[in-house]
Amino acid sequence: MRSRLILAGDIGGTKTYMAIFELRGATLGLVREASFSNARYSGPAEIFRQFLKAGEATDVTSAALGIACPIAGDVCRLTNFNWVVDRAGLKKEFGLRDLALINDLAAIGWGVGLLPEDDLHVLQKGRPSQGNAALIAAGTGLGEAILFWDGKAHLPSASEGGHTDFGPRNALEVELLKFLIEKYGHVSYERIVSGPGIENVYEFVRSRRGTETERLKKRFEAEGMAAVISDEAINGTDEGCREALGLFLCAYGAEAGNLALKSLALAGVYIGGGIAPRILKALSDGRFLDAFRDKGRYDGLMSNIPVYVILNDRTGLMGAARYAASLVEGATIKTVSGMGRAW
Description:
Layout: E1 4-11, E2 15-24, E3 27-37, H1 44-51, E4 60-67, E5 75-77, E6 84-86, H2 87-94, E7 100-103, H3 104-112, E8 120-124, E9 133-138, E10 142-149, E11 154-159, H4 171-184, H5 195-209, H6 214-223, H7 225-235, H8 239-263, E12 269-272, H9 280-283, H10 287-293, H11 299-304, E13 307-310, H12 315-326, E14 335-337
Parallel strand pairs: 1-4, 3-14, 4-7, 9-12, 12-13
Antiparallel strand pairs: 1-2, 2-3, 5-6, 8-13, 9-10, 10-11
Helix pairs in contact: 3-12, 5-7, 5-8, 6-7, 7-8, 8-10
């Protein structure tokens, strides 16, 4: 079969991944990939110019970008980074035959089915049933999607569920809500369950404890707050960080459970995003799953829902490529070759 090129991109709030794949039958073979720090570029067009070789775009049969924002029309703005993605402008500048824009969680949803078993860490084995699945991913923001079962396959449907109202479950979380209302007014789950959210939770804990060591201040300045909070908490070297990560885990688990109930995700819940693989030890200590299952009369149902952590940070990139390939004469992708994981 004649080879065809697929261009895929995964544009998040912090990083952008780009790749060229060769489409052969039901397989996508990686030709080339690269990652880019968004802060170093003025927009996706500049990344396209650096990534694509001269004349390469005209050889691309189909292209798709997963983008961390709602997709409405040909122009969209990232939720957590000041970039605009102009579909028509990119097509025209680079001579692409077509370019699809999809939500970044939809892209991950398209990629989940391509993952081998060792790219999934089982948090809860459960008892999977045929039906819907769900996807939640904390990173720069909090993304959510439902994977609808159509009788043959799971079809991703994007949402902006991460921006729904935070619902406290106990007195301490009520205090956290009041603290964040003073800061933001409206408090969504993303204000807690995300990289910046971890920082918000730590600030709340610090306001209650009234202390912070000089050692910790220096680490924050040198390494950034979110990563240091997680590291100190997991290693047990700072009590305030441990408390903050605990609040984060409980909110994350509770909202993952909310999503599972709303979508009736009997086939499983997938935890994506950049944070989960880095705090896998803490995710596995029971606090996340306790909050996930704590749904009153439905705790038994929740215990039967499988929960997986996605370990491959290129899942959204593979999913965007799979979606782009599906637009080429109805190509059905079953495998991806040459694509590993960075974690």
